[in-house]
Amino acid sequence: MVTILGGGIAGTVLAGGLARAGHHAVVYERRPNVRGGAFLFLDAHVHRTLADLGVPADQLDSASYPVDGFRVGAPAADAPEAPSAGHRLYHRTDLMRVLTEFAWAAGADIRYGTAISDLDPDTGVLYPGGTAAELLIAADGIDSIARTRLEPERVAEYAGQVVLYATAAPGTRPNTTPSVLHFHQHGQDTPATFGHFWNDSVAVWFVRLTRAPIAVGYTGFQPLARWVEPIRTALPEIPYLLDTMLDHTAMVHVSNARCVPLTKALPPRLPVILCGDADHALSPSSGAGARDAIDDAAALCRALLNGDDPADTMTRRRAEVLAQLG
Fold it and tell me: Taking the model in full, what pTM does it have?
């Protein structure tokens, strides 16, 4: 039996893939999928990986929106549009709904409301309860309890930007090309990035502001009003676009961008293996967090089904992640 800490993207995908192949997988997750403000873009590579694991493609399509291309530059600029590599837009909660239904249908045992407060990294014993796990995959996120016990000096670091995600009111239509992910970057003084995507069904936008981290009490869902002035000040070149998106938005989801560097990582070792953000969270500017989490889960699933060493597997995955960073 494989024990998995965390029922997020990586943990749920891994549990579903194992269960579908007849391997017992138990997931401990303290809370069910809740509505969040974040959205993400997954490319064709990720969709092929999910399909190989058995996630129904039609359900993924129904929970997402196709992205036709990417464009970097102010709306009036003569910037070329790059084609999409099979990207689709997901609200994170919609993606998690599909992945969770896949895992349940496969027979994964997901135990919501079960908070693991501590563990012994040498024996795989979980607390409370004192239950020993023969193999423990820790996919418990950027504030991983497992990583704290395995590598207490490798902590999440502030990446220098505050990230805001928002969904505008239905029917919001900026004067930009629909079904294209648009980026505008302001590079002087304190760099900032504004991105948006819209079609006939949805309009979303995000901002990354370079600044000191904000207090925890101001993270999560917040009224947009207190962020309007910082956004306008950081992105002076696109006032009319900002007017359209900000005027049709009431709430914004705010977070401090953090990363977990691999440069200080100890070699993976049994019985506890880190996975996804618990092991190598990157700055949101890379846009690769969900992709890396799914690739980790798929690699571990293949290793466990083939009888390979999961520690060796995650060593190779770390090398791949570092190679992507250049």
Answer: 0.94
